[in-house]
Amino acid sequence: MAGLIERLFPQSCLLCSSWRAGSLGLCHDCLHDMPWHTDHACPQCALPSGNSMLCGQCLQAPPAFDATRSLFQYRFPLSATLQQYKYGQLLPLARTMGLLLAEHVGRHSAADCIIPMPLHRKRLQERSFNQSAEIAKIVSKQLHIPLQLQACTRIKPTPPQASLPYKQRIKNMQGAFACQAELTDMRVILLDDVMTTGASLNALAKTVKAAGASRVECWVIARTIAE
Ligand SMILES: [Zn+2]
Ligand SMILES: [Zn+2]
């Protein structure tokens, strides 16, 4: 049925409006031009490391998460596309990114549940949707990994972090999350759209580990790479 619908109503590319987008919603050229994160990277934080070994920062001060996998590097024009998506335009991008994440990142991973980065209640009211949760729903379906939408909440509204130094970001995130679920010995995937310094994911990872999780992997659409 899906195939028939596609043939009757061919989907246009979300980025360039080409009519040859296929079921992903991205045409071959746009997919090819994406900033794929193919560099050798630190397995723990996904920053380029030259030789796929742990980076200096993870050796010195290991984060609470055990691994990070990222589809893309956070660069223009993908960065602009993800911003549009986050603020409620381009909603079909959730499906595209969920399918890509499941295919490229999920293939070799075993996990017991997926927890999307929670938004604070107020932020959720403003935006009316959680950009990470929408992607997580697709990934969960594709990989048959249960989704835990209510497991964690953001209990502290955090100011926009972009302009703050790293240490200040870490401080701001203390006590930002609560976990209501029992996660004893579970392997947990934390899903977020963009990982910048990793301060939010680190704080969330700490929270789920305190709730019993044995292993925590971060899956993100794009990783900010310092130029
Ligand atoms: Zn295109
Ligand atoms: Zn690292």
Automatic annotation (TrEMBL):
Superkingdom to which the source organism belongs: Bacteria
InterPro entries hit by this protein: ComF/GntX_DNA_util-trans, DZR_2, PRTase-like, PRTase_dom
Family assignment from sequence similarity: Belongs to the ComF/GntX family.
Protein's UniProt name: Phosphoribosyltransferase
Highest classification ranks of the organism: Bacteria, Pseudomonadati, Pseudomonadota, Betaproteobacteria, Nitrosomonadales
Any one Pfam family match given in the protein's UniProt record, by short name: Pribosyltran
Positions of the Phosphoribosyltransferase domain: 132-223
Domain Double zinc ribbon: 5-59
PANTHER family reported in the protein's UniProt record: DNA UTILIZATION PROTEIN YHGH
Coiled-coil intervals, chain numbering: none
